[in-house]
Amino acid sequence: MLALSEARLRAHTARLEQAGLLERRTAANGSRSRHAGTGLFFSGVINRFSDLLALDAQLTTARREAIYLRGQRSTHWRCLRRALEQLRNVASQDARVQAMEDAWAAWPGADRLHAMTLDALAAHEREADALTRAALDLLETLQKSTDRPLENERSPLQDTSEDFSLSCDARTEGRGSAVEVVFGQPSRQPTVSSRQDAEDGCKGGPNAARSEWLTKVGPERLFRLASPEMQFYLSGRADPERLRFHDFVWTAERRVLELGIHPSAWSDAFKAMGVDGATVAMLILDARRDDPVAPIISPGGYLRGMTRAWLQGHLNMMGSLIGLSERRRREEAL
Question: Are residues 129 and 179 in the same domain?
């Protein structure tokens, strides 16, 4: 029934017996018989069943935590790579840039991440986050000193209009605008086939306008649209007006874990929508969980539905953002 050889079956039986999960009762000659009351008895498994269920849940949680941490490291790696590319162009001889390059080169490879303990992986993620933010800080400092706009950072000129629909509705922007590039109909965009494609898409194509959506909407306004839980994490990283695109991605991935969304659902959203679309989708989903009219019961199922709608060209995230803005206005008016 198990499609195992006799040798493998005996080996498994021995291991279960050593673990106290199985008792082997045999006659003097080693034979087993139902009539003689001998055979394999699983009372050990039955008695410890609740403990084994708890252990399985614990291991499942640890595995998902590890997947989440590796995903966070990938986010830092991707953002730091872009920041260092720009730093090389403007300050290649700066000792700080070289130190960051050396620290980045010392990061463990993806294969080593799988072998790290959960504590070690968490510590490395924190270090990677700190290095990425330091690189972004240096990039911003150089931007101010050279008075040159660096593409990894938002423009200092931001729309501060209180009319969200005017600044965010893609229909009011010209063809090829930053908002249309990020939030336009997916049927007009190339399909992103893998996470690596999504990462490489940062260099050009539909995802080239990496954080222009943040420039158009404004970090403070996007912060106001986020759920209280997401705002809690964002507030711990920077003041609302100082938030970067990287902060929103980091927070979205953290909420994926906390909402119990399966890693595959987030991975599918990332592959389909790219980092921009997946991040905003998570912000919308999280903010609508407690919607008084249609609360979200299954965040993972909802995210998968958003991904399907995106691939079919039916997902209107800009309309959802406008709807969240109207809801916030009504709540503040009460």
Answer: no
